[in-house]
Predict the structure.
Amino acid sequence: MGEAARVVARIGATIDELVRDRDRLLATLRAATATATATAPARAPAPPPTPVTVRPTAPPPAPPPAPPAATPWPSPPSIDERSPVPPPSRRVSPQQVLLALGALLVVAAGIAFVAVAWTRLGLVFQSAVMATVTATACGVSAWTARRGLRATEEALAAAGAALLAVDLGAAHALGLWGLDGVPVRLWTAVSCAVVAAVALGLGRWTRSTVTWPLTALLAVQLIPILLVPADAVAGSAGVAAALGTALLDVVVLLRLRAVLAPLAQALAGLWAVVAAAGGVALAWVGTAVDAWTATALLAAAGAVGVLLGQDTRLAGRLPAAPVLAGAAAASTAVALTGALARADLAGQVAAAALGLVLLTAAVPAAPRWTLLAALVPSGGLLIAGGAALLAVEGRLGVLGLVVLAGTVPAVLAAVRLPAGRPGATVAALLCPATALLLIREEGWLGTAVAGLLAALVAAAGFAVAAARADRPEEPAAAGAAALVTLLAAVATAEAGAWGQVAVQLAIAGAAGGGYALVTHRRDVAVLAVADLVVACWVAAGGAAVQTVEVYTLPAAVGLLVAALPQPRAGARSWAAEGAAVATAVVPSALVVVAEPSALRLVLVVLAAGALTVVGTLTHRQAPFVVGAASLAFVVLGRLTPYAPLVPRWLTLAVVGLLLLALGATYERRRQQAREAVAWVAQMR
């Protein structure tokens, strides 16, 4: 009811709109007629009459002005504009359902006829019946195509194609004309070829039917695989058949209808993936002949695909040339790695070396994207495959040499490719460091030598970062250098060579400090100082040194160096040197009280006194407070053990005298205390 009401409303609105259009058209015609009458040209003058004498008369009155043209009223919005009706959703029509069911039933009847009635009737009669039904379906499909009945022609064409396949299968299964002696694979291939040929012929006869080219496209998919012997499908012949089918699907795109192009593209991609997977698997687990044959087939197919991608007729139907080149090169590289792996160590090294050569060649080929897309993935996969095989077999020394050789393309890329310079810089620093660690694990280099060389690599990284300051590769070089330092320190610490760890940290810390000074980076300077302090601690700990000052004084110096910019900026003493002086004196003062030592006592007292004097002269609060507090703590700590030895009467007398003196001078001492506190408080 709602749909009917809407239709009635639209009809009424359409009638009203037609009435308004009629009124506007009449008004326009009246206005045009009036304008044409007013501006009509004067009649042609008559021949001049015989001259006579006439009296002058007044000129005729001017004609009245034409009425202005009526301005048509703007048309109101139509019912469709006021209440737009959404287009109906695309649904399957009853006609399509009926046609599909009818075609399905006809095909089912043909199958049942072949399966049940074949033995009851003669072969000639049944063959004639099936051929007649199939030909009738195909002929009626062509007739309906010429009458413009699209749905009917497609349904009958589908039924005819299915019946043709049933006829061919039944002829072989039931031994018509001795066809049961033909091998199943061969007859299936012949049947697919017959179906494809018939579909192509009918497709050229009825250009509007989509089912015929679709049937031909699907029928030819299995022909190459079926023509290969069953025992050879798992070999290189199967890979070649799959690649041939993919090539056939690509070539078909040149003549195929646009509506079927996506299907042909999907089929070509599917067969290409199957061929690539089969070729790679064959290269790794098949025989040597099959491995090298599959690798060659994949390489040739990739080259053909790139050439076809350059055809203008296939420009919009195939992936871009770099994508094709990259995929083909990647699959070929994996297959080649498997083929080379059969040669044991020589093959593994050859795969990695070939990958290095390809990556090195990719640097000058950078502007050519297709060539670059082929070289980079193939080179990377060859290196990864060869390195993985070497690592699995435990040949870490050879693997280290391969990784060390990877420095060459990394350095070349860092020099010649500005866009990839940060990543190439990281690779150029990590490759030699990783190679040193691998060679050390193999035992070709000692721990001390390998760690020292790794520290030098880290120092070189900081030097590169300083030289390339304010450029994109600066943080990459600095980060890689820090990572190399950490890796070298951890690897050396695992061997228990703490002295070497300290040397490595010291070298890296000094290089990092130089980088911080050149680039004026405070955060890097703090990290470099911390690295040097840790180096001192590691050296002392490795030597089993238990003296407190060996650990506190380097930390104090580091804190003081890190805080050097603070006094220049006018910062308060606690924010500048407070942590440094406290770290230098307080632990020693605690130790001198807990474990008395004459030398330490003298040195602590001298240091605390010096800090107190320096703080007083420079008017700095932190040195003064730390020095005075340390002196007081040491004095009290040293005198406390002797307090029980003093006679009691002497203690009482001293306390009493002190109280009397304090009471007599209470006001003056109170004022002096306030002044002293104020003086200390106003220090910076």
